[in-house]
Amino acid sequence: MATDTRTEKEKMLAGELYNAFTPQLLSERAACRELIYDFNSTRPNEAEKLIETPFKCDYGYNIYWGENSFANFNLIALDTCPIYVGNYVLLGPDVKLYAATHPTDPQERLDGVEYGKPIRIGNNVWIGGGTIVVAGATIGDNSVIGAGSVVVKDIPANVVAVGNPCKVIKHLKEPTRAPNQFQQLTMFNLQK
Fold this sequence. Notes:
Layout: H1 8-13, E1 18-19, H2 23-40, E2 55-57, E3 63-65, E4 70-71, E5 75-78, E6 83-85, E7 90-91, E8 96-98, E9 100-101, H3 106-110, E10 113-116, E11 119-121, E12 126-127, E13 132-134, E14 138-139, E15 144-145, E16 150-151, E17 159-162, E18 167-171, H4 187-190
Parallel strand pairs: 2-5, 3-6, 4-7, 5-8, 6-11, 7-12, 8-13, 11-14, 12-15, 13-16, 15-17
Antiparallel strand pairs: 1-10, 9-10, 17-18
């Protein structure tokens, strides 16, 4: 019988059961927390931010952020597996993206292993405040997720979906024009 020689990080990135408490992964999470601390401590006029503070994540290197996308305050992204955020995505305050999960088998949980599944958010998606998106969920292009929803399965493109669990309540027409250029307005250039 062949022995699995992969590291726990390699297993994590593959979405397989892994031990999150190896020295390598503990070190990477600690380094990420140092960077996040600095990011969350920047003054509003120090840098343009696509993610409002406070922001929290596990590793940071598994988050793929599209152009002209924005996250309001208190985004949490548990990125043990990739989290893909498309272009022109708007995330309300307190959105949680949980690519990490735990086994339902009680013995596996006692063994201290976990796993993850990628989250995919399409282009031009608006996710209302307080929404939770769980491991493995995909949200299609142009869709709207109502505030406080819990997305536990895939949501198709061009719909409004709400609730716990999140369900489609309305179909939308696909956009027919290219997006306008977004202008980043801050309190400082509004006062000029």
